Description:
Low-confidence stretches: 1-9, 193-197
Shape: flat
Strand content: under 5%
Distance between the termini: 21 Å
Order of helices and strands: HHHHHHHHHHHH
Mean pLDDT: 92
Amino acid sequence: MLMQTNAMLRTRPRTMALWLFIVAAMIVAMVMVGGITRLTESGLSITQWKPISGTLPPLTDAAWQAEFDGYKKIPEYREINAGMTLAGFKAIFFWEYVHRLLGRLIGLAFALPLIWFAIRRQIPRGYGWRLSALLALGGLQGAIGWWMVASGLSVRTDVSHIRLAVHLSTALILLGGIVWTALDLRAAHNMAGNLAIARPSRLVPVAAVALVLLGVQIIFGAFTAGLDAGYAFASWPLMGDAWFPAGAPMVSPAWRNAVDNPIVVQFIHRWFAFAAAAGLGLLAWQAIRQGAARAGYAIGGLVTLQILLGIATLMSGVAIEIAVAHQVNAALTLIAAIVAAHQLGRHRTIG
């Protein structure tokens, strides 16, 4: 037992937790920039995937013209932006470039410290595989990002909304995994003298249900963004003059309407929000009962704000500032739910 305790003390769980919280903050920033990129229609401005050489932006007039010429070859330019000036292209290029650059920085911010901790044997027992899995998921996220962009380079004038949903969902799964691991490491630091108490937290059923409901709502949010469904009806609570517009065009088979029909997708996103809110409310109540009042009240406040931002996004005609705040607040709501879920799991593990 003494040898195990000394081994725990030689590791750096507190430092590693701080590192992971910083990476999580960078992912939230990535979600924000991704939202801006989508809303400014900038995502297809870079038509090649160059993980290394693409780190630097075009530095000469010839390089800029080459990038612009590549953009002119895709359907989005020919069918929507024909006649765009080089200055206009630079404006949309900026957000996609920042989005990709931030992704590279997040990769380095995760990989390099992980290698350092591993070389110095400062990773607590049982965390090496988890951190390696998170690193692999981050690499996969980069590939998914290109897979998403590639869907809009040949036939479509935008990216696939399904691939967009996969891209966003993977980012938020990565965010949740990093925050959960950071919380485990912080607990390991706080309880270093008692390895039984320092065991990783477990996901309890009420938390699992709440997170699944939140995940489904986020997926429909991505569908809404990818289909531009937020523009379909700029009114609340009715869609025009009805709860669901009569005569709305439907697709076949029927199940596809929940995925591909902008009107149905907006309808589902509007009202499933309250199912997700109920699940998160139950999680918040349980967290408060078990002594995690801050996390519980944070969930309540963020969920309320999220619903208000969703309504404001619709009624403003999808104003960029409000829509981006809506997307970022979804990430913050997820973090609050993860914190509450972790606290419930810690209570169950210790109990």
